[in-house]
Write a structure and sequence with these properties.
The complex is a heterotrimer. In chain A, about 35% of the residues lie in helices and about 25% in strands. Chain A is α/β, with parallel strands linked by helices. In chain A, α3 runs parallel beside α5 and α4 (about 110-120) packs antiparallel against α5. In chain A, about 50% of the residues are buried. By secondary structure, chain B is an alpha/beta fold. Chain B folds into two domains: about 1-40 and about 165-360, no CATH class; about 50-160, abc type-2 transporter like fold. The radius of gyration of chain B is 27 Å and the shape is elongated. Chain C has helices spanning about 45-50, 75-80, 95-105, 110-125, 140-150, 170-185, 195-200, 220-225, 230-240; strands at about 5-15, 20-30, 35-40, 60-65, 65-70, 80-85, 155-160, 190-195, 205-210, 210-215. In chain C, α3 (about 95-105) packs across α4 (about 110-125) and α5 (about 140-150) packs parallel to α6. Chain C is globular, with a radius of gyration of 18 Å. The chains are: A alpha/beta, B alpha/beta, C alpha/beta. Chains in contact: A-B, A-C. Chains A and C meet through α6, α8, β12 and α10 of A and α6 and α9 of C.
Chain lengths: ~300, ~375, ~250
Amino acid sequence: MHAIEVENLSKSYGKVKALDAASFAVRNGELFGLIGPDGAGKSTLFRLLTTLLTPESGKATVNGLDTVKDYIAIRSRIGYMPGKFSLYPDLTVEENLEFFAALFGVTLEESYDLIEPIYKQIEPFKERAAGKLSGGMKQKLALSCALIHRPGILFLDEPTTGVDAVSRSEFWDMLSGLKERGITILVSTPYMDEASRCDRIALINEGHILGVDTPQGIVDGFRSPLYSIRSRHVFALLNAARQQEGVLECYPFGESHHMITDSAFTKERFMKAMSGFKDLEVKEIEPTIEDMFIKLMKR
Amino acid sequence: MKHNFLSFVKKESLHILRDKRTMLVVMLIPVVLMVLFGFAISTEVNNINVAVVAPERTDGVKEAVDRLANNSNFTFKGYIGQERIDECLRTGKATAVVVFAADYDRLAMQATEGVPVKPIIQVILDASNVNMATSATAYLQSILLGAKAQQAMFETRMLFNPQMKSAYNFVPGIMGFIFILVCAMMTSVSIVREKESGTMEVLLVSPVRPVKIIFAKMIPYFTISCVVLVTILLLARYLLGVPMSGGVSGIFALSLVYLALSLSLGLLVSTIAGTQMAALLISAMVMMMPILMLSGLLFPIENLPKFFQVISNIVPARWYIDAMRKMMIQGLPIAAVWKECAILLGMTVSLLAVSLKKFNDKLE
Amino acid sequence: MNETVISVRNLTKCFGSFTAVNGISFDVHKGEIFGFLGANGAGKTTAMRMLCGLSYPTRGSGTVAGFDITREGEQIKRHIGYMSQRFSLYNDLTIWENMQLFAGIYGLTKKDTDERAKVLLERLDFFSERNTLVGSLPLGWKQKLAFAIATIHRPDVVFLDEPTGGVDPMTRRQFWELIYEAAESGTTIFVTTHYMDEAEYCSRVSIMVDGEVRALDTPTRLKEQFAAESMDEVFRTLARGAKREEQ
């Protein structure tokens, strides 16, 4: 049995189709990433799975329970951290935690061993109002609150948005730790570079699931030759490269540009044609998740 | 699961206690309003300018005017002609004008002998300051007529404020207003705040039933309202001297019903509003405005256009304020306001039912 | 290429006993895309406010677009463009109305406004959509549009505050192309972000930690210097040493 199963799930808000026939499954104990930009339908999917919304069509199960029929039963078995970290800013760290414990009818002591690795980092500030914590600390508190009743499945909607790079990296380490303890985690993020921290990922855009696989599997599906080119003259290079024979596409990618070519393309011929760029560097590279996302979007 | 209900109440109370400014405002507003009215009602009457209109300056008239001029509370401004009454009052030259009848001496004599006569002294007052006008009338009456005071001989006409609203008539109005403010507005804002901050999502995705969440939210606000209620009643009784001879228990009982009604109203607003701003606006437009305009708080309902009189029937505050006036000021027992009680109870039950039905445990 | 557009020396801002920005110095050249990075609370926002003429430095000096940041704040505001993810456009106005509004704020003539608006919209292929309400556009479009509007008065410097957070990868590329193009034509771009993949697009990057600039170079050389694979790693190495608690 899968921890989460989604079959042809759709949801519209008025005329806008937020989620269009999405299907995928999350295995037990998996750290599964839902990756897509803002407005892709990630939050809608989370709200459908956490039983806050009713699907328009299609079906989803969590722990084998139907999200429509058995929604009450699902609610006590999952941990959920909505997009905006939902804490009470005027309550202290400790009061927040105690409240969420009481909400699920447990005590802090009962669950302390599970949340300890996370909570002990913010415990020195337990008298502080949650609203006065930094982004990273709020995130840790919200995660502690979501874990307090020892849920089997954790739903984390964009937990790393608005948090700096150090805290984001620490957060992913914490998730790996929770996975070790057998918790299934569904996490969403708009940042492609976080995909590699997941066991498997689903790429989502405009309500459509573009692909589901391991990060490596996704990248392996790229199949076209891909080059990275760079020069000091960034913009001129971009325009010039697009005119060259055999270049299907060229787009900015950080310091360099990525160039997708057809099989007839040769590096030598390209270098010769672009000899006007004295500092030109061209090398064939492995695609990233982001390259694949762009490719799938165009399809 | 009793444990988590209490922790809900505790959490709500903490929210309220941490927000000291709001808390202070809520506790202070009723006190300030009551004290303001308390001072306004002060019976001290000093330096009232009086002009006299007397077609014949007979002995009787002179004697009465002397008594007036010698009284420290009044300043005699001289005799004026009939035609200048209005001008004097309007320009503020005189606050009261005393008009003697043409054959005052003869009529006064008849009156003392017990013969029924038409009024022989008319007092015309600027009643824009009600309290001053009321006291001034009483004083004038006793001074002008002396020991021979005869009600029948005296006619008073109030200008500018014919209803003679007494200050403590406002007390029930203040109550009707404050409880909506505390219960309805604050409850709705506090529920909607959770929607806005996303905490509502987590609450809903917990095993706790929405009904519990709601009642836990209401309890602290209900408690505050009760404190406010007691404060208002104490101030009304001992500062303003509102009689409340109809029995305090009845006043309490009906007030509790009204509190419950206000809370349900707040809940209903919270199911409609998506943002705190919207909740505030709805509260202000849909609840405050009708209370101010259509409940008899500012304008007597009988003076409203027919259309608004009909509308005022669905404003809960109207019934509450009505009943409170009867019980607090006229001193009627609760049995006398059974109709108002029944209407308020009915409204409470239906509002609560509707809002509980509307408050579902999903986001749509 | 070496004309200096932003120059600050020993810039310091204190709030009471707390030193938010502690003696930072750097130069930004014309046509450069300058990445201004730092953890939350490192002093990025405070520094940027001073550069935009919104707050006075406690000590130190600086010029932006040739104007002194202490004395000529009003002039600076007229010569810079500003776009942030939060401050977007007015959703209840059309694209065209938004452009007219912002052009008006910067005192462009009617004729100039119409010309600029047309040029900018044609470049985005939006001209036919000019009467569409901004609120009905997808996020990526809004951001491209916001950038175009930030350049409507031909500013010397454009300040971008986390411009492409959360945008889909394709739109984000189009966005950076717009920035490259603007930089190519001589506009200086000053980007603050805490997303390191945005940093990789910049010509040079500075990293603030505890109110000080701890590193400043091209992304390539920074990666070499810290023996790191990505800017993310560079940043984490630097920011882990932070003593100040983030806010």
